[in-house]
Amino acid sequence: MRRKLVAGNWKLNGSLKTNAELLAGIVGAQPFGCDVAVCVPAPYLASVAQTLTGSAVRWGSQDCSARDSGAYTGEVSAAMLQEFGCRYAIVGHSERRQYHGETDQVVADKAKAALAKGVTPIVCVGETLAQREAGETQAVVKRQLSAVIHTLAHCVSEMVVAYEPVWAIGTGKVASPEQAQEVHALMRAQLKAATPKADDMVLLYGGSMKPDNAVALLAQPDIDGGLIGGAALKAADFVAICRAAG
Ligand code: PEP
Questions:
Q1: Catalytic residue numbers?
Q2: Which of 208, 210, 234, 238 should be mutated for ligand 1, with most atoms under 8 A from CB?
């Protein structure tokens, strides 16, 4: 039986003051019946690590460089994330693909770099609205996942995958449980062809998951948790989703 994971993606939000309030609300609501993590802006990793050490709540980053070190201004390496105790690194979020031109191969290289330092990559895949309307959802997700499967090779089962339809992110338009499950089942089948451990892998859904739709999404057989954006910024909402997963 897979244990569910609920991971918050804070994106470009937060301050020392609001982070402290948010984390107090999450930590104070323990215990959870699922794994829980917050993926925070890099400058806050040290203080978040300090706050969460000793709790069951894990932390991570929202990106990870594919490079180990050198002249790559602005990049944060997997080794640095590891030093700050990151359990997870989101890679390939659609906002990185869209605004930073990250290709499938760059995303795969980032996932590999994270894993090499013991940081679990949460690899995001998902189609745009235009791609869904053109009937390309399966092909897009398959292509995005293929790149990472090929690059991670025998380590593929160690990643977490997040199916995040781009049209559902931050829009309030959530994929129906059936739409999400259909893609998750396809991803599981694709992973099964690559690793005997595919049934143990955690596949998250992300895209306007809220307390009022989480139960139905999380009840789907191949949805093993959520990657949560907007609702991760309010302790009560995030905790409610964690409870739905637990
Ligand atoms: C996300 O950015 O990963 C996300 C799922 O955002 P939201 O929950 O706000 O749609």
A1: 93, 164
A2: 208
First to last CA, the chain: 13
Cα(220) to centroid(ligand 1), Å: 19
Task: Say if residue 192's pLDDT is above 80.
Answer: yes
Could you give the CA distance from residue 80 to residue 111 in angstroms, rounded to a whole number? 15
Largest distance between two CA atoms of the chain: 48
Residue 123 — φ and ψ, nearest 5°?
A: -90, 120
Per-residue pLDDT reduced to its tens digit, 37-58: 999 999 999 999 999 999 999 9
Q: What is the pTM of this model?
A: 0.98
Which runs of consecutive H residues, i.e. helices, occur in 15-99?
A: 16-27, 45-52, 78-83, 94-99
For the stretch 131-169, what's the b/e string if a residue is b when 16 or more beta carbons lie within 10 angstroms of its beta carbon?
Answer: bbeeeebeebbbebbebbbebbeeebebbbbbbbbbbbb
Residue nearest ligand 1's atom 6 by CA: 229
Cα–Cα distance measured from residue 37 to residue 51, given in angstroms and rounded to the nearest whole number? 13
With a 6 Å cutoff on the Cβ, whether 98 touches ligand 1 is: no
pLDDT tens per residue across span 81-108: 999 999 999 999 999 999 999 999 999 9
pLDDT averaged over the chain?
A: 97
Count of residues for the chain?
A: 246
Cis peptide before 196 (omega within 30 of 0): no
